[in-house]
């Protein structure tokens, strides 16, 4: 069972059937070897009258922009701002009301953003709401938001990065704060759901169309750029143990990440598929690369290539090699992953398989990332507390 705010519960009683859509863009300009345009998705957002491009993330809930005076920290050393490849930068003005006695700090592995929170009118997908947001004054190893100005998190409010403290060097306490989505749902009384439909890159283009983010409902399924059908299944959001977030409301755990149970995975040759019917928790995160599955089944899947592949972070395959099928069972239905997402051509001209394995550690240990989202329209429903 999961707690939601009283204000959001009240908004559910008077929701309007309006849908607001904004395009996602893909930026695949990497400084490392990797698949072009693989994980960096951006959209447009404004703080007051200043407009920016921001990274989109479903595994965090805060919204922030890099300050015009931010410190660029790479591996513990201060660098010129240009080395962090972030911008344009936000100039603090009268639209932003700082909240005294609080700091903003969030880790994104390996990036760390810190600064101060406040309230500001934020516009996204044509909707404007005054909401909590932050200004980042320090960015450590900011590869996550390269070529953008900040981040918009689409997770639940307990995941925001607000803390009570005057300095990040002191003891501080986490303060769950209303996220941008929570404010939109409450103030505009739109249906509390959003959908992410990620497009599949068509080639080696650096900047490209990335899909759509729809607030309040579904995108147009007849759009040829939307990789989905009207055959929907649903899975309830779940909680899991976390060493970082232990907040409760009336004894109930607050929902944080989007976590669902996958009932099974199916892989192999058509008509002779291996089945893992043991349910497991998976994190849904459109901003993370790849798909992470139990290590034993990952190794079994690698062995089905011809010639068989060995376990490891990088497994090169022939670009023309047949790809073993791979499907997830969710909500009683099978969701196949397109072979084009299971083997990709990297910037070095070679092809590599894209799955990875986990030994079961972590919370949750398995991942449905960017590659999974390309194959579905993923509706995150806050009213029914489910993914469908």
From TrEMBL:
Protein name: Peptidase A1 domain-containing protein
Gene Ontology biological-process entries: proteolysis
Pfam family, one: Asp
Domain Peptidase A1: 41-388
Entry annotated with the keyword DNA-binding: no
Keyword Manganese: no
PROSITE patterns: PEPTIDASE_A1
Positions of disulphide bridges: 319-351
Parts forming coiled coils: none
One term under GO cellular component: fungal-type vacuole
Molecular function terms from GO: aspartic-type endopeptidase activity
Keyword annotations from UniProtKB, A to Z: Disulfide bond
UniProt xrefs under InterPro entries: Aspartic_peptidase_A1, Pepsin-like_dom, PEPTIDASE_A1, Peptidase_aspartic_dom_sf
Family classification: Belongs to the peptidase A1 family.
């Amino acid at each position: 069972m999961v707690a939601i705010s009283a204000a959001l519960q009240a908004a559910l009683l008077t929701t309007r059937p309006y849908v607001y859509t904004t395009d996602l863009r893909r930026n695949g300009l990497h400084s490392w070897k990797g698949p072009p345009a693989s994980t960096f998705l951006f959209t447009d957002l404004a703080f007051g009258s200043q407009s920016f491009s921001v990274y989109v993330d479903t595994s965090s809930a805060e919204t922030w922009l890099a300050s015009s005076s931010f410190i660029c920290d790479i591996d513990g050393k201060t660098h010129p701002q240009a080395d962090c490849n972030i911008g344009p930068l936000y100039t603090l003005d009268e639209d932003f009301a700082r909240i005294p006695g609080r700091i903003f700090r969030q880790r994104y592995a390996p990036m760390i953003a810190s600064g101060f929170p406040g309230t500001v009118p934020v516009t996204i997908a044509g909707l404007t709401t005054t909401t909590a947001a932050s200004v980042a004054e320090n960015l450590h190893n900011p590869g996550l938001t390269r070529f953008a100005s900040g981040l918009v998190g689409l997770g639940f409010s307990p995941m925001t990065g607000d803390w009570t403290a005057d300095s990040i060097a002191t003891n501080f306490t986490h303060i769950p704060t209303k996220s941008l989505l929570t404010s939109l749902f409450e103030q505009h009384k739109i249906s509390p759901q959003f959908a992410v439909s990620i497009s599949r890159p068509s080639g080696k283009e650096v900047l490209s169309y990335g899909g759509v983010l729809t607030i309040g409902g579904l995108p147009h399924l007849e759009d040829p750029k939307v990789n989905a059908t009207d055959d929907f299944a649903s899975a309830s959001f779940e909680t899991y143990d976390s060493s970082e977030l232990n907040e409760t409301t009336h004894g109930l755990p607050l929902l944080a990440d989007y976590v669902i149970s996958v009932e099974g995975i199916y892989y192999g040759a058509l008509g002779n598929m291996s089945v893992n019917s043991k349910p497991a928790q998976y994190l849904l995160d459109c901003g993370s690369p790849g798909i992470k599955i139990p290590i034993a089944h990952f190794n079994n899947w690698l062995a089905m290539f011809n010639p068989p592949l060995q376990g490891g972070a990088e497994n090169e395959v022939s670009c023309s090699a047949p790809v073993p099928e791979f499907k997830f069972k969710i909500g009683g239905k099978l969701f196949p992953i397109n072979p084009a997402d299971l083997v990709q051509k990297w910037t070095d001209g070679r092809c590599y398989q894209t799955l990875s394995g986990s030994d079961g550690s972590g919370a949750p240990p398995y991942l449905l990332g960017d590659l999974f989202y390309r194959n579905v329209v993923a509706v995150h429903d806050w009213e029914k507390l489910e993914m469908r």
